[in-house]
Design goal:
The chain is mostly helical. Helices cover about 80% and strands about 0% of the residues.
Length: about 80
């Protein structure tokens, strides 16, 4: 048990928040990265979808579209996995 100085006592909310941060360090940073990469991938998928739909440069647009959709799926998976932990 840790001795606490009356001047440095933490509220129960602060203690719970610090304990959660110890259990999952950098969770906020990881979520920020997931949002950034997910948004970028979604925008890329949007652009390549309309390039394929317009029939422009399908040989390179279709693989890029699949890559962007795969990245979106990966980010969704990682986000949900992060939320379950």
């Amino acid at each position: 048990m840790v001795e606490q100085n009356p001047k440095t006592r933490l509220s129960k909310q602060q203690y719970a928040r610090l304990k959660a941060e110890i259990n999952t360090p950098y969770r906020g940073l990881r979520q920020f990265i997931y949002i950034g990469v997910g948004a970028s991938s979604f925008i890329g998928a949007f652009v390549f979808f309309f390039r394929v739909l317009a029939g422009r440069d399908i040989d390179s647009s279709l693989p890029n579209l699949m890559l962007q959709l795969g990245l979106v799926a990966l980010i969704v998976f990682l986000w949900r996995w992060e939320q379950r932990r």
